[in-house]
Design brief:
About 10% of the residues lie in helices and about 45% in strands. The chain has about 350 residues and is mostly beta strands.
Length: about 350
């Protein structure tokens, strides 16, 4: 599937005093994340972050700003080849110096590419419980600790260390049954500073890089609680709910950058965790072989590929393995009736 330099995921912001931070303890996970979501795009900051995935540690230099409604971000890996991720409005550019690849894609998500924000926060309290774990300090700043605890084994838990003044998450962990599957943590950060636009330009000369564009066709958006969601799901031949809590959210046609195929992408979410289902024509050189299935994991992200007749279906999501298998099993009856787009030459 699509190569991503760094997982997307998102950082926050705006005024919240220590007193109001304590008040959040009485709220639901929906309310906490909605307040974070409303502030996340406005804050300006620059800092250094450590990311841990499967015991592999990497360091990132991170900058974020919102000027006149245009979000700009720059993530630079301080290790290895020095990959860059640059966001300017709804355009996301990933630069891979060793492979000499420039990946360009549209990213119309609000806020940031670092912190995972809820797709539909109104559903969260059905599947998660918010626990207040008290005050602490991260990167020299006062924070309030929260645990968004799942009510079942179909989703991960989320530990958040939220800056008491700004609502910026300074540390985040994704929790499996008994272990941390992924973590990011600021080691230093400057908040509310002025960052010149020139700082968001690339430091890599990509003149002769191979350019890959991950294009996206029309998107039919629908919230989980709306009649429109069920209507779109039925019209597309999909179940309104593919697994307990994971409801139909959107459908689109997308070019998969790794193999150049055109695939239909369907998104299911419980409001926080999301599963994407990609459907593409089964490659001609694989049709004669026995249908295959394969599960893989990097950090919190599981991917599951299964051949279904003349289609290859790939599921991806930051969910436990059992959830992907359940979504695949429950959705397969519908998928077999969906006509997959023909692969490009």
């Amino acid at each position: 599937m699509r190569a991503r330099a760094l997982p997307s995921r998102h950082v926050m912001g705006l005024l919240l005093s220590a007193v109001s931070g304590m008040a959040l303890a009485q709220q639901t996970p929906d309310a906490l994340l909605e307040r974070i979501s409303s502030a996340v795009s406005d804050i300006t900051y620059s800092g250094t972050m450590i990311r841990s995935v499967d015991n592999n540690i990497s360091t990132l230099r991170v900058m974020h700003s919102n000027r006149d409604g245009v979000i700009r971000e720059k993530l630079v890996a301080q290790d290895g080849e020095g990959r860059e991720v640059i966001r300017n409005g709804d355009q996301l550019i990933c630069l891979f110096p060793e492979q000499r690849i420039k990946l360009i894609e549209s990213d119309n998500r609000p806020a940031s590419s670092l912190v995972r924000l809820p797709l539909a926060a109104s559903d969260l309290q059905r599947y998660y419980v918010l626990e207040d774990h008290g005050p602490a300090r991260v990167a020299g700043r006062k924070v309030q600790r929260y645990f968004i605890k799942p009510r079942d084994g179909l989703r991960y838990g989320h530990r958040l260390w939220i800056d008491s003044e700004t609502m910026l998450p300074l540390r985040m962990q994704m929790i499996g049954r008994s272990n941390v599957v992924e973590e990011i943590r600021f080691t230093n950060i400057d908040i509310g500073i002025d960052i010149p636009d020139t700082e968001f330009e690339s430091d890599i000369d990509s003149t002769d890089f191979k350019v890959i564009r991950a294009s996206t066709g029309p998107i039919l958006q629908a919230t989980s609680t709306s009649v429109a969601a069920d209507t779109v799901a039925r019209s597309e031949g999909w179940p309104a709910e593919a697994s307990p809590g994971f409801r139909f959210r959107a459908t689109m046609t997308q070019t998969v950058s790794v193999n150049g195929q055109v695939a239909q992408r369907v998104v299911f979410s419980d409001g926080l965790a999301t599963v994407s289902v990609f459907i593409a024509a089964r490659r001609a050189d694989a049709k004669a072989s026995k249908p295959q299935s394969q599960m893989a994991r990097i950090g919190a992200v599981h991917s599951y590929q299964r051949d279904m007749g003349d289609k290859t279906v790939t599921l991806m999501g930051e969910v436990p393995e059992a959830t992907l298998r359940q979504v695949a099993d429950l959705a397969e009856k519908q998928l077999m009736g969906v006509s997959a787009p023909v692969a490009e030459d």
